[in-house]
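Aim 2 progress. For Eukaryotic translation initiation factor 3 subunit K, the working sequence is reproduced below.
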Amino acid sequence: MVVEISTIMMSRPFLGQEKVQSSILNISQTSVTTRAQDPSVIIEDYFWYLASYPQQSNFNQINQLIWFTKILVVVVVPEHYFVPNFQRLLPPEMDHYVKMEDGKVMPIQEMLKSIERYNPEHLKVIEAYVEDQAKDNKYDLEANLACLKLYQFNPQMMNLDVTYTILLKSLTNFPHTDFVLCKCLLLPAQMNDDSVKEIVYLADILEKCDFTLFWSRVQKNPQFFKKITGFSESIRKFVCHVVGITFQSIEKQYLVRLLGDVDDKVLNAWVKKNGWKEEGEYILVAQQEGNIKTKHITEKIDFENLGPLMANCL
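Predicted structure tokens for this construct:
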């Protein structure tokens, strides 16, 4: 087996190509006999070894590790080439460590639980984390609120693009009240921005469940929402939630409009996902009578408690 490491050094080296190549070759000698000569497993063993290293490392070594995972590693075996899946190899939050004043590093989730969440030096890391949420279709309300709170304390550091991302991500979590929490942390400069006003208007439309109007507003500027991965799907999930607690049956074409003029394939996917049934031109949602539960309330008032009240009425 021949292992070749092709590094893209850009502007700075990190560990030295010879040292890394020697390390992988040493690990390969022990892994070949125990892991069925699978080259992908050999490389994964080495990456997991490195992934556990930063817990005892300083911040510079963390940066070296993060940069190292972005090099191109090509394992060459007879008639086989592959590039390892680095996204799968990296542990959670690998790209979101913050440096403390004492030199230690901390995952961003741990930092958000401490007083360090108010440290403006961490703002760039939090902003990068917000952008990754939009790209990877993930959501962390605490990080987003921490970012807006730092903007409140440091108006000169305010970033409108990040503000848009936070507000749009909060829309995707309807019917929860995340958008209200985010809105309460906005500065006047943010509230007076035209794009922020449009997002606030969209939130009002969603609260009123005027989904047809909502989709028409979205279609006027689709590029504004494209950076939020899964935005339309998240809104459609909320639409189905509202339909599920409101209708017993709904016209198919009306449901199509509520979902944003989707095609039959998308419509059938949401019908199947929610356990609904198609009957001709209608979609059978649920028998709402079965969801209504009667509750008997029994009130007991002792005469001793009622006597003083009657005496005051005389």
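Confidence is low (pLDDT under 50) at residues 1-21, 27-42, 44-94. This observation will guide construct design in the next reporting period.
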